[in-house]
Structures are given as C-alpha cells and as structure tokens.
Amino acid sequence: MANSNPEIKYTQIFINNEFVDAVSGKVFPTVNPSTGQKIVDIAEGDKADVDLAVEAAKIAFQRSGKWRQTDASARAKLLHKLADLVERDLHQIASLESLDNGKPYIKAVYSVYGAVNYLRYFAGWADKITGETVPSDGPHLTYTRKEPFGVVGQIIPWNYPLSMVVGKWGPAIAAGCTIVMKPAEQTPLVALYMCSLAKEAGFPPGVINVVPGYGPTAGNAITVHPDIRKVAFTGSVEVGKVVMAGAASNLKKVSLELGGKSPLVICNDADVDEAAQIAYNGVFENMGQVCVAASRTFVQEDIYDAFVQKAIELAKGRKVGNPFSQGTQHGPQIDEKQFKKILGYIETGKKEGAKLETGGVRVGEEGYFIEPTVFSNVTDDMTIAREEIFGPVQSIIKFKTLDEAIERANATNFGLAAGILTKNLNDALTFTNAVEAGNVWVNTYMAVSIQAPFGGYKQSGVGREMGRDGVEEYLETKTVSIKLPAKV
Asked: Which of 82, 139, 281, 472 could form an SS bridge with 487, CB 3.0 to 4.6 Å?
C-alpha cells in the first residue's frame, strides 16, 4: 500500500551490477517537492564514473562475452523476469515515485502497471528482430542483418521517472545493446531501485549501468564519450540541441524526444462537456508536466464562451494536495526552479492581456503546489501561447474556421502532438493530414500506445520511440552480398 516514508536502500551509482560511491566522493540531495525538504543524498557521478560505466558496458558487449552469447529468446525472458519483479514491488516503486516526483500515488500505481506492460511488450520483440533477403542484380545472395549498436547512452527526464527507465531499457535490451543511463537529478530514486531489480532478474554485469548526476557533467560525459555508439535523450529542446552537438564529436546516432506546444482544436459540433473534460485531462495531467500537454486549446467561436465556463468549473474542482492523501488529483511541481518559472509565465500572461479565469497562485506555504490555471482571450502572439510552460496552465484561444485553426496550429517550431474534437469526418481527416505533428488524436487526447511509434516533427525531436520504430532506433542495418557460381 501507499507509504509516504518508503525505505530508501539505493543511493549509489550502479556499475557492473554493483552499487558504488562516486569516484569523487561527492553527493547531491534529491528533494521532496511536496515539502521542499531533502529526502536523501545521492552519489554524484561525473566523467570519471561515466568512463567506468562505459568500460563495463563495453566488456559486457564483447563478442565472446556472456551478453553477446545470450540468445534473443533469453533476453526476452530477462525482460519478463524484470516485469515480474516490478509487479511484485508495485507499492514500493509507486511510493518512491510519488515521494521523489510528487505525482499522486494512484497515478504512480498506474505508471507501475504501465511499466510492466512496456517491459513485456519489448520482451516480445527480442526474438522477432529479423533482416531480409534482397533480390540484387547479378549472381549474388544478398541479405540484411539487424545488429545492436553496442554501448548506448540514455538520458531521461523527471516527469515520468519509471516510464522513462523502462521505455529506454526495453528496446535497447530487446535489440541486444548495453546501457549507460543518467536519470534526472531531481528523480533518481526509482532508476536506482530498478537497478537492484535488474540484478535480481539475472542481467549479466555491465549490461545495465546507471550514473546519477547533473547534465553538464554526467550527461555531457555520456553525450561526448567516444565509445558510446548512440545516445537517446528525452527532455527540453534547449538541452536536446546540446546533446545533438555533443554527439557530433564521434557522429554517434541520436534519438531525441523533446518538447511541445500542442494544439487541441475543438470544433462547434463537439459536445462541450465532453470536450472540456478531454481538454482538462490533456493539460492538467501530471501537474501539466507532460510533453504532449494540450497547452494551446483552440475553441471555435460559437461554443467558446460555454467551453470557457466549463473549463473554469473543472479546474476549480481539481483537488490539489499531498500526493499520498486519498482523493488527491494534483501534486506539486517538480522543484523550486520549475515552480518559479511557471508562476513567471502566469504573470506574463496577465501582463500581456490574457484573462486569468481561475488559479494562478501558490497553494499552501510549503512545497511547490500551484492552482490549476485557466486563461481565456489568449492570442497567438502571447508568450503563454508560444512557449512551453510545462505546468498546469490552460490557454484557451478562439478561432473561426478550420483552415484558420490548422494554419495557426502549425505556426510553431514544435510538432509533437495535436488533437481535434469534431463529429465531422471530413474535418477530422483534413486536420490529421494537414497538421504538422508526430502524434494526432481525433475525439480523444493522449492516446499513447506502446505498440505505436511516438515522436515529433520539427524541433520536437528526432527518431521515434515505442513500437517497431522504437526497437529500430537501437539497431544498425548490415548488408551482406555473397557471390554465387550462377544466378539461380
């Protein structure tokens, strides 16, 4: 069951299946966002620790080593065993996630069930990675092989700590890679706990390595390391550009899942109550700390006023409080920096002429809680309509025609997600074909599926995660041609 004070066993760096102190001996605090107080000190990794982790991952990937000799079906069994252990320790993991991240405990429980599904899905891929025979010219047998990159670096954010761990580990392990991961400095507890389960599951030493620390040190060391063949990053556009630039040092492959300023277009024929609920869920989920958040809510003029009133009602009814308290829907923002940034955006919205309908203030005197916030009369040129806030702020924008809405929806450097609510099939198809986004939802929102690729257009990312595409991101394609005595 929920435990607001779970036992914390793992605070060290995990290399070669052992928990060790940082080479420097340094530590850093991880903070409870509900109180602003330190939970525990964590070993602070940097370049020296990343070098050790990469060396362990390289040895594990040696051609004659245990990992390379492990059958694909056996990799699948290891992922299934890890899923079993995650399921066994559901309440401990959920409690750690709520404590370190601030999300309501019930949401953390859902994340654990989701993680189990992630691991089982990618386990299913391990022995289904195949090449092709190619009808090449001449007397040749030509075929392709799909081969793992080798050592891969993974840098994950703080908004979904467990989901990000398994979402990165799963496809990399299915492909046969070895891993050096840096979890977000705000939320290292779940990643380190997962290391203990990976060891218990039977993963060989060096296959999974986790180095907590800061972006400019540990993260940068992963990005520029000459022996890492590929780096996967999830986070902000700003840092994504830094990762891509660092990866150019040895032209390592990159996959980037970055930010968004996603439009949700609500047409006149939509049911207002249903539309308001979908939009509410789409922007306030996880305290607004979601890359695909419907942070630009476009509402057609005939239903605009009715929609705004319903949106206000829903936001006011959202229960903000302790993540471990029964009935809490909305926890704190992740840290003081993000808390102040969001409040700054709210002040900017008011100064630039948007109408603050509800929220916009701190809740309580400790922790980083912000009331769910609704702005109406938002225009495209306002800061809150252009920049990713990553917080509980809904900007409601009026539009006249669908063509206008599409043009305005696309007038952004982002392109992660988009949605439309309408009963008109032609309008729905027009929108899905025209909008510039990697994920498009019709009469729903945030319908993310493990089985389907996930990623963005424009500055919202490079490559895809989940589905077949997510596994392909960890594979090289080798073409082999063999001369035959005659073309058969």
From this structure: 139
How far CA 21 is from CA of 149, 161, 186, in Å, comes to 29, 22, 18
Paired tokens of 291:
């890359």
Q: Which of 44, 257, 465, 472 is catalytic?
A: 257
- Chain-centre distance for alpha carbon 241: 17
Q: What is the pTM assigned to this prediction?
A: 0.97
Can you read off the two tokens belonging to residue 54?
């990469």
CA torsion, ordered 191, 15, 154, 98, to nearest 10 deg: 10
β-pair partners for 271: none
Which tokens in the block code for residue 328?
């809490």
Distances from the Cα of 281 to the Cα of 5, 210, 340, 432, angstroms: 29, 33, 23, 21
What was the pLDDT predicted at 3? Answer: 86
Among all chains, which residue has been given the structure tokens 């994340």? 111
Residue 177 falls in the annotated catalytic set: no
Query: 206-236: buried (b, 16+ CB within 10 Å) or exposed (e) per residue?
Result: bbbbbbbbebebbbbbbbbbebbbbbbbbbe
Q: What confidence tens digit (pLDDT) does each residue in 6-31 have?
A: 999 999 999 999 999 999 999 999 99
Q: Name residues whose C-beta falls within 8 Å of residue 230's C-beta, 6 or more positions apart in sequence.
A: 149, 152, 153, 177, 252, 253, 254, 255, 473, 474
Closest CA to 201 of 166, 175, 233, 231: 166
Report whether 180 contacts 57 (CB < 8 A): yes
User: What is the C-alpha separation between 314 and 283, in angstroms, rounded?
Assistant: 12
The residue ranges of DSSP E strands in 349-436, in sequence order, are 355-358, 373-376, 393-399, 417-421
Neighbours of 451 (CB within 10 A): 10
Is the pLDDT confidence value at 188 over 90? yes
- For the question of residue 387 being annotated catalytic, the response is no
Q: What is the rounded average pLDDT of the residues 145-153?
A: 98
C-alpha to C-alpha distance for 469 and 451, rounded to whole angstroms: 9
Half-sphere exposure for 404 (CA within 13 Å, toward CB):
12
Q: What percent of the chain stands above pLDDT 90?
A: 99
Beta bridge partners of 154: 181, 232
> In the structure encoding, which two tokens stand for residue 166, read together?
């398994």
CA 314 to chain centre: 26
Taking the C-alpha atoms of residue 259 and residue 284, their distance in angstroms, rounded to an integer, is 16
The amino acid at 308: V
| Residue tagged active-site, from 44, 185, 291, 472 | 291
Amino acid in the structure at residue 431? F
